[in-house]
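Dear Dr. V.,

Thank you for agreeing to look over these. As mentioned in my earlier message, I'm a first-year student in the group and I'm still getting used to reading structure tokens, so any feedback on how I've presented them would be very welcome. I ran two proteins. I've put each sequence directly above its structure. The first is here:
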Amino acid sequence: MKKVYPIIGALLLSASTLAKDDVPWFESNTPLTQAHKHLLNGDLPAMFSSLVEVWQLDKNQSIAPHLNALFLQSLEVDCGKSLDTKPFPNWLNSVVVIRSDIQSPGRDAYRAIIEVEADKTIKDITLSKWVTRNLSTDSSLNTVALSDNVTKYVKRYNLNSRMQMGLYRIDVTAADQSSWSSWLVLGDPKAKVSVRWQSKDQWKVERNALLNPHCPLPKLEASLYDFIDGKYNRVWSQSYESDYPNELNQNVIEPGRYVLAVSMNHARWQGPIIVEQSQIISKTYDVSLDE
């Protein structure tokens, strides 16, 4: 824990300015001070529980950056694996939450996606922002059969703006009325690796900060989509965890006009939940007969 002390010290100093009547903040017993104490003591589940309570009770957005810094510091320990020790129920295999920022010529789009793998038939999946605010009325729920017993359910929300930091709630309801729910805290991290277009046919990977050694390596994915019968269909895809390329080998696909999407994905955990931040850039891409 020694390596986290300098940043925690700065957080403690800023927290002391939040105390009232000049009472030393360590002598108070608010959820915020408890979150700091638990982080100092290495009790990440208790720290996370206190942080959820702060987000539930606090109405002053001025401390949101402080809460974000505190949360991001907790991820330096083990990338969020210890924030929640409660396992999934036996019928729920995995939960992945993805925030996507999509940049295409002349338009930016935002999505929230929840992927659930389950042994039971799932009736509904919802993601809402505290307090009980629906993300969007533009949503869909699709299924993919992975095996005879396991199905992947994908709930997709099309958003008007980027998902903000703060407290969210995930609810999964099965057809037999079994249910599972969890609080989800989203921070506002700055992407440590990002991607942008460098020329007509090339992109550039930019490294903006040191990576958290406890988190998976950022994954770059390049995909080609064909537009058929009013829908985009992925016809090719390749992912990379290192030695990121900056262009596409055109020999992988037949000549024609496609949409090329390049994404940079950062992943962490919140206990058993996987949380991903995805930056996607896309543009029209021509593969000529001469190549």
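The second protein is here, in the same arrangement:
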Amino acid sequence: MARQKQLSKEKRVAIITLRNEGQSVRKIGKTLKMSPSAVAKTIKRYKETGSHEDRPRKGRPGVTSVGEDKFIRVTSLRNRRLTAAQIRDQVNATQSSSSRHISATTVKRRLCESGLHGRITGREPLLSTSNKQKRLVWAKQHKEWTLDQWKSVLWSDESKFVIFGSNHRVFVRRRKGERMDSTCLVPTMKHGGGVMVWGCFAGDTVGDLFKIEGILNQHGYHSILQRHAIPSGLHLLVVGPSFIFQQDSDPKHTSRLCKGYLTKKE
């Protein structure tokens, strides 16, 4: 026998309202296009509970226990790259004496209920602890800067655009706001076949883009400073005649030749 559709709260209210007006069960059913038995059950239920709300339902009991749910969550947090199938195997291994085993689908459901959703890992440059500390110090020193001050900076760097190499996706389980958490990232390094370029920008305006041929050393970078960096800074209206040239501490950037040139140009 097919399961009957549950009555809406509005229909229950209508049934009781018509009943209070003195209408019979059969007439109410005809008016609302319902069976007399459904009307009679609704009236009986209202007399017992005095409410039109749905009764609480228990539903099918969960396959996993509270302890197993915690184990699934903690296991995923300890290693964000474990798949649902791998976590399932670990849970089932602890139940070797039991005939009950959970599925990977159950593991996925429990992880989602805990706020851990499968996502593709974010990518960021591989940084040492020392580099992270230096970046934090630099950020704290400049956190009070105004927008006009930031517009007076000419930012520059080299970048390699990979043409050949592996860019396969890695999945992790993470919660909202954890995209840049270290356990949810894949470190990247500048390697593999590609095109190396130097570029700069200030505010919302870009300067020269220079394609680098071969290996860039201090002499090649000195030439870029002369022909592209300083001219770009002087030509960008958003920067003006006086600007701050920002670069990282790459050995060729901090060579005596390049630092002497920038010091001479103030």
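From my reading of the second output: The radius of gyration is 34 Å. The chain is about 40% helix and 15% strand. Does that match how you would interpret it?

Kind regards,
E.
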